[in-house]
């Protein structure tokens, strides 16, 4: 295991601060503080929750020691379902814990709030739904880094991963890890593989086109190019969180 990890410049980054956030059903006028609202009819399905701000730092190392650096913050929310819930339309992490799909949020449900709707099935067979709203920035933060070596080739940019960090946070008495995996990682990846997951990047080279636009008749179409996938892992489950897209705009700036 140690030999496989040595293939990369391993960057350990675990930054954790206390949260102190509370579940609220009413209105909160302090928009800077992270706040979650659950519509009353869905509140019985939630026993607890945890939110962290995931900050992903991307480094692109080009020839002549030139580099491009960018960061993006994402809100990561785990829900602990009540004992009455058997399943919900979120990503399971085991022990009745779910990662909600914040990448597909809708901001039109309530002005100033992010929103996602989840379907629920209770143990008695009754279906239900849950409207979750949130705003503000979580006070707990986790930092993740990924480094790519970039070479411009005839048909695009060739990316080779040269460094990945290993980050983790705690929730509901358990430890969860942030994993950055190749974009073609199978969704049924077995958990033992995640313990030595850096080996999945061994000899892995990605090539993306020189441009993310193509012409379709008189229309210019913008195409995203995923170069990595972000997962959250526990000892009991693996849940997809978001994708890293190749930053064409940053490369076009020169």
Automatic annotation (TrEMBL):
This is Lipoprotein. It comes from Thermococcus profundus. The lineage of its organism: Archaea, Methanobacteriati, Methanobacteriota, Thermococci, Thermococcales.
């Amino acid at each position: 295991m140690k030999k496989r990890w040595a293939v990369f410049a391993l960057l350990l980054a675990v930054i954790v601060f206390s949260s102190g956030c509370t579940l609220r059903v009413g209105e909160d006028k302090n928009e800077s503080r992270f706040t979650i609202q659950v519509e009353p009819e869905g509140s019985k399905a939630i026993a607890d929750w945890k939110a962290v701000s995931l900050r992903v730092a991307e480094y692109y190392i080009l020839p002549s020691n030139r580099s491009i650096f960018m960061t993006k913050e994402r809100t990561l929310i785990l829900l602990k379902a009540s004992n009455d819930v058997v399943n919900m339309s979120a990503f399971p992490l085991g022990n009745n814990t779910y990662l909600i799909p914040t990448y597909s949020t809708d901001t039109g449900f309530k002005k100033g709030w992010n929103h996602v709707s989840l379907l629920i099935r209770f143990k008695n067979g009754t279906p239900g739904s849950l409207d979750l709203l949130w705003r503000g920035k979580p006070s707990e933060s986790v930092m993740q880094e990924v480094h790519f070596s970039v070479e411009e080739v005839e048909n695009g940019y060739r990316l080779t991963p040269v460094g990945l960090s290993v980050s983790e946070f705690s929730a509901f008495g358990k430890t969860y890890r942030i994993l950055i995996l190749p974009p073609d990682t199978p969704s049924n990846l077995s958990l033992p593989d995640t313990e030595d997951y850096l080996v999945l990047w061994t000899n892995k080279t990605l090539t993306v086109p020189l441009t993310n636009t193509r012409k379709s008749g008189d229309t210019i179409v913008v195409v995203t190019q995923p170069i990595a996938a972000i997962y959250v892992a526990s000892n009991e489950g693996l849940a997809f969180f978001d994708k890293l897209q190749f930053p064409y705009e940053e490369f076009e700036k020169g």
